[in-house]
Model the fold of this input.
Amino acid sequence: MKSENMEYFKKLYEKRGGQGAPAPSFTTDWPWLILYGACVYLVVFFFRFGFADRWDASELWVNGERILATHDAYFWLAKAKGIGSLAGYPLAQAAHFIHSVTGVGLGTLGFWAPAFMGACVGVICFLWGWLISGKQGGIIAGVIGSLTPGFFYRSRLGYFDTDMFTLLMPMFVAWLLAVWSLNHTRFSWDWEGGAEENSRQSRMKFGLWQAFSFGVLTRFCLVWHIDIANVCVLYFLFTTVYVLVRGEKGQRTHAIHELGIFMLAAFPGAAYGQLWLFPSLYAPFTHLFQVTPFIYSTIMGIGFALLYLIAVNIGRSRNSSWVKNPILCGAIFLVLIYLVNLIVAPFPAIFEKLAGYLTPTAPHGEASGTEALGPIYPSIVQSIIEAKRVALSIILERGLFEAWLGGLALLMTVGVVIVRPVAVFLLPLIVLHLASVKLGVRFSMFGGAALSVCFGVGVYWISKKAFSGLPLKKWFILGSQCLVAALFLWFIHGRYSKIPLTPVIPALHAEALVELAAHSSPDSVVWTWWDWGYATQYYAGRNTVADGGKHAGRDVYPLAFALTTDSPKKANGMIAFSSQYPGEGRDWVGLYPARQWDSIPRSKLSETLDEQISKETYPARPGQFLVVTWKDIRIAQWITYFGNWNLQTGTTKQAAIGSYDPGKLGVNVQRGAIMTRNGNGGLVRDIAVLGSGAVERKEYFMNSMSPRLLPVKRHLLVNSVSKQCVLMDRLAYRSMLTRLLIGDPDDPEISKYFKLVVDKLPFARIYEVIQ
Done:
């Protein structure tokens, strides 16, 4: 019975065109690949380009450049502009090079680059469609693959970040490995074998050089971000297992040798540092030739890959037994795995990365007790939007525009893998996408392109079947692919046209930072909330105490404390004490007062901290500047969470905040009354209306006697320019953040410790910390 069932499935598979199907040939298809690939690139680029006019409003420009749309963009541009070292930051180096050669402004470059790079993902999706089902099979995938919500939201105009590469490069490397694997595996699930023998023998002649060249290409892909290296290492190991399982008899040893060549050409230096071979030669070699360890490892890796290639090529031509010996082949491969450091370094880094997203609240360290040393620090992860967990329906929607389309694409993926086993190389990206329900919404950027490939291939196969009897079926098939792609473009253009623009900071905030450069020396340090750290470095040209790469609880606590306390003296004291401990390293950012606190018995932390920040005098230090902004007011809930953190007990008290966008809250300034859209409301104690360069404050003493007085959030701040409103409790209202933004700078209680140097109300004020 088993045998009859198997025979039935074999015949069904063969009938559907699966068994014995030839793999696409680059030799015959390359003109079409260039034509279709160029068309896909241009369509996707101009689609992305078409949203630029939404950024033409004057309030989105500073110094002749548009304000960018993501915080991390300013990290790379600040490096390219001269803050810190360029070494080790490829995206910053690329921006600096393009800026130097073309004269294009860094901000302009950062705004447009995502359109150029995002369109490349469309080309890779097209190539995947071609690999699975031929030159017309990738048209739909190419057009929509880089426009799926999960990726598009992170690669829109102004999103100058490594996300431009984090999907592109792994998907390209997966495609290279899939193409290479066809030298040693069958394109379809053939049970009988032998159908592709002649073709395979022909392709094997190029297998060695293909592995080497693909390895060198992979090396270029890896350098942009460590996460890309992590994914590509996993893809390499996945490919090793794949060819061992599906490789033809007699082909596995050849495949393993070629994987060894690929490994040497791709990974040393580009992924996890030095090649573990002759380490004693590193110092004299790098000193003699004035090259970095990265360059040394690159030269050594490519050089050994070439030597290995020549040795295997000679061995094959002479039919040497060592080339075919599986034990020797496996031993060489395992030694190379060790020397190239593909197990020891990547997996701990990968597990640590996943743990950070799987555990939103970091462990608090040692249990409380008299013998415990150092503070209990808060975790910052839970306040990061990227780590937010969302429902599966939203993840599917981010994969292919609508939840039902995402689910349909998943079903099509199953069918595509059944018919074309090479499509299994897309599965890791889809799995990573689905893991967003646990890892956080950021990971939803990975699977949309892969789902688009499988969806596009499925639609292509359906159209082939539907038009199979027509005389001009090729044109009908092509036309149907273009029509479906055009309908998708029409649909998603309407959706994306409604997405709110997300400038990192308001124009007046950016102008205040530019002006700060004239009021501060180059060694000055700026105290601004970590979300605006990179933008501050770019616009002001000054280092900050925290930023997107230095925002652990131990880093942001001093800053949050200074913004949260209701005492100007304590805020000044925390800044004065912390500024005695500059960061360490070649390219330091921020301060490191934790080096002092980590050695203090936990039971004495509170009293010690009070003593440290209550001194009358502190050692001389570079200028310190504190920035308070309207955007800080809107996230004061989190700032006070960290600022009120008790380092001794690990507890905190968080402010109550209600933030309202324009039109969401009705305000009666005469009565001190507010009302939301759903009819809820009440009376407030006071209202502060922040206008251009001034604050109008109104107090309603009689409201305190009314039963309609709001129970907690009794203080209202209104930004008359942005039309936004914030309701807050006493904790937030009495904080230095609020007092410095809306208060009188000449108030003796404030002016004794802080001097206003830049005033850009209602969005930003910058104070010099008086020493």
The domain at 507-643 is CATH 3.40.1380.40 (Pyruvate Kinase; Chain: A, domain 1).
